From TrEMBL:
SMART domains: WD40. Residues 215-226 have a biased composition (Basic residues). Keywords: DNA damage, DNA repair, Repeat, WD repeat. WD repeats lie at residues 99-141, 250-291, 337-369. Residues 193-228 are annotated as: Disordered. Gene3D superfamilies: YVTN repeat-like/Quinoprotein amine dehydrogenase. This is Anaphase-promoting complex subunit 4 WD40 domain-containing protein. GO terms for biological process: proteasome-mediated ubiquitin-dependent protein catabolic process; protein polyubiquitination; transcription-coupled nucleotide-excision repair. One of its GO terms (cellular component) is nucleotide-excision repair complex. The keyword Repeat applies. InterPro entries: Rad28/ERCC8/Ckn1/ATCSA-1, WD40/YVTN_repeat-like_dom_sf, WD40_PAC1, WD40_repeat_CS, WD40_repeat_dom_sf, WD40_rpt. Residues 197-214 have a biased composition (Polar residues). It comes from Oryza glumipatula. The lineage of its organism: Eukaryota, Viridiplantae, Streptophyta, Embryophyta, Tracheophyta.
Length: 399
């Protein structure tokens, strides 16, 4: 029972950090469609992007296919329905009617990492715009060479104010808010960068598959050794089915990469593909960890925004009209969330509120909150945490 874990903590037999982790894990394990909290969205199109600010962790920013972006206060309700259902209406909206609004789809909306006074939107109208939250005016915009599919800012940068953008152009452009100009153009891709909607900046380098490789004359299967890690020698990689034999490059997925997400500790990178596969990569070595995630069905026509818990222990991924939570280390399906009527495009997990927010083509943002049924019994929460989330972790209640 949970009371037993509390008594352990009172007697000093359970460390504060382990107790906190166990409590968070218990709440995450009980996520369900909230019957106490509801977002009333002003969007008239599919929700493509969701992000809570990184400073106050209070304001949810959304971007939609009708060219609009909105901000919600996730802590303070606008009104209460029937006395107990908290309704959260948008406290800021910029749409096509705004004098500086986007004309087409808003593909990505992100907060300026160190201040809620600014946010950035990217659109199919070939513009990346920087908005002043207080005045709801554009303070800077960047004209791109094609439709903009992705925009991201580093949450840890201290010496620059760069926005990385991926567009229909085959290059990555870095936009500098400080100067209002492009500082770098990164070349290397052979096609449009539309699968990068869920990209978050990290220190990872190229991704190399450690499963199968082919030689010039015959197929070979190798086990990855240290000498074969990138930087330790040339590796002959299996060709992507869509590439000609002359374009030999590393292959992570058989098809487009539709989503990327780093874990909160920066140690691992998750990627989803149009082949309906999810991969977990070790950023330090660039190797596939070979976690076999259970079967899923993913959208192939749109980028996906994945979410991970702070532990990290679970990954949330949009699977058509549902959201599946997978154990990050075993690949097993932990839970399936159903509530949307049309395909889900984006997920965001708030560690502060311990809630999951999801956006869909049905123009709705749903809230999934911790809920414990009355009278439910649990095994010791610490043991539950160990068994469900970290099966390889050694349990020591004194740590």
């Amino acid at each position: 029972m949970w009371c037993e874990a509390v008594r352990w903590r009172e007697r000093g037999e359970l460390g504060a950090r382990r107790f906190e982790t166990a409590a968070r894990a218990r709440r995450t394990a009980s996520l369900a469609l909230s019957n106490r909290k509801e977002f009333t969205t002003p969007h008239n199109g599919a929700i493509n992007s969701l992000q809570v600010d990184l400073t106050e962790r209070r304001y949810l920013l959304s971007g939609a296919s009708d060219g609009s972006a909105a901000i919600f206060d996730v802590q303070n309700a606008t009104e209460y329905e029937a006395g107990f259902i908290a309704k959260h209406r948008s406290i800021l909206l910029v749409d096509k009617q705004h004098e500086n609004g986007h004309k087409f789809v808003v593909s990505m909306a992100v907060w300026y990492p160190v201040d809620t006074g600014l946010f950035v939107t990217a659109s199919f109208d070939q513009y990346v715009k920087v908005w002043d939250t207080n005045s709801t005016q554009v303070v800077m915009d960047f004209k791109m060479p094609g439709k903009v599919y992705s925009a991201a800012m580093s949450p840890i940068a201290t010496t620059h104010m760069l926005i990385a953008t991926g567009s229909a152009d085959v290059q990555v452009h870095l936009c500098d808010i400080a100067s209002g100009a492009f500082t770098h153009t990164l070349s290397g891709h052979r096609g449009a960068m539309d699968p990068l909607n869920s990209l978050q900046p990290s220190s990872s380098s190229k991704i190399y598959s450690a499963q199968q490789r082919t030689g010039k004359g015959k197929k070979q299967s190798h086990k990855l050794h240290k000498s074969q890690i990138p930087g330790h020698g040339h590796i002959q990689q299996r060709l992507h089915p869509g590439l000609s034999s002359s374009q030999n490059c590393a292959t992570a997925h058989y098809g487009a990469v539709t989503g990327l997400r780093t874990t909160t500790d920066g140690m691992y990178l998750l990627s989803s593909g149009s082949d309906s596969r999810l991969r977990l990569w070790d950023i330090d070595s660039g190797c596939n960890t070979l976690v076999n995630f259970e079967a899923m069905r993913l959208q192939t026509s749109k980028p996906l925004q994945l979410a991970v818990t702070e532990d990290p222990s679970l990954v949330f991924i949009p699977c058509m009209a549902s959201i599946k939570a997978y154990n990050l280390w075993s690949g097993m399906t932990f839970q399936t969330f159903r509530g949307h009527y049309e395909p889900v495009n984006c997920c965001y997990y708030s560690a502060q509120e311990q809630e999951l927010y999801t956006g869909s083509n049905d123009m709705q943002i749903l809230v999934w909150s911790p809920s414990t049924p009355a009278g439910a019994t649990f095994i010791t929460t610490v043991q539950y945490f160990i068994l469900q989330f970290h099966p390889k972790y050694h349990f020591d209640k004194d740590s």
